[in-house]
Amino acid sequence: MPHIHIKKEWEISDNLATPESTYLRRREFLKGTALTTAATVGVLYGCGPSSPPNVFPEVKWNALEKSIYPAKRNPMYELDRPITAEKIAATYNNFYEFGSGKIDPVHYAQKLNTRPWAIQVGGLVNKPTTFDMDDLLKTMSLEERVLRLRCVEAWAMAVPWIGFPFSELLKKVEPKAEATYVRLETFYQPFTAQGQLAFWEPWPYVEGLTIKEAMNELAFLATGIYGHPLPKQHGAPIRLVVPWKYGFKSIKSIVKIELVNYRPATFWNTLQGLEYDFTANVDPRIPHPRWPQTREKMIDTGDIRPTLPYNGYGEFVAKMYT
Ligand code: MTE
């Protein structure tokens, strides 16, 4: 029987749900301003294929990674829905450094060199440390967590991340008592990640959490997914996963983590503060200024589901906000 889809009033098109910066970027192109940059970035955005590829690039494993993936699943995190097909999750990404289309990151992020990779952790800590990615992997005990991810654009997926609790990394550097926030930063390589040539946007991508949120057991640093190392389009070699918050908080390809005593400026909040707040907890009662947040669409099946407060993780995190 053919499946006839009748659009409900609350359903939004992907276009409508495009973050503000994409509109700004397109408008810039149309206006013909910033010609040099627009021309360069235009090459990137203009040439992206329009439909998902049948095959996506194979993830390369180094010798160490062969000895640590896959990791044992932590049974504490249970899903209420099937895991999203990998082929969809890995070809429908937001990674604006590599383009504003969902299909752009799988193509253009492959240019990013993820080894060697250093993560500098400092600020208000007793033991500031720069970790080499592979050295860090050797010291961490990895686990798999199947978690929902809810994008502010009203789509959702459910994926098996592999990594370790953020708190385990923070404990290594011994945060000082006066540290109240954590600031996380993505690499800045505008000639590799040509989205960063858009000088009117506040690159590099920066995100932040309160120290309490960062130490919460649900805050996770992912280095793998679907039983293997993280592909570049998902934020290799290390990205944040904070599943009770909208996806834009889950910053990819982290190079710097700083403990601070002020609320850090963040990428989306700086671009459009009225649309993307700092806390960004998933909440069906608070609409985005341009669309409702009461429902979400699974990216693989197209199933429409009610949005859950804290994306269904209230038992772990609600206590932080009372
Ligand atoms: N991190 C960086 N550095 N750049 C980005 O553009 N996009 C965010 C987040 N992390 C983004 C990022 C958004 S909006 C979402 S929804 C998730 O990554 C998407 O993660 P995924 O592509 O692995 O599904």
Count all strands and give the number: 12
Counting H and I runs of at least 4 residues, what is the number of helices? 10
Query: Considering DSSP H and I runs of 4 or more, what fraction of the residues is helical?
Result: 10-25%
Determine and state the CATH class. Answer: Alpha Beta
Topology as H/E string? HHHHHEEHEEHEEHEEEEHEEH
End-to-end separation: 49 Å
| CATH architectural group | Alpha-Beta Complex
**How would a textbook summarize the main sheet?**
7 strands, mixed
Give the integer mean of the pLDDT values.
87
Radius of gyration, CA atoms, in whole angstroms: 19 Å
The CATH fourth-level homologous superfamily: Oxidoreductase, molybdopterin-binding domain
Low-confidence stretches: 1-50
Could you name the CATH topology? Sulfite Oxidase, Chain A, domain 2
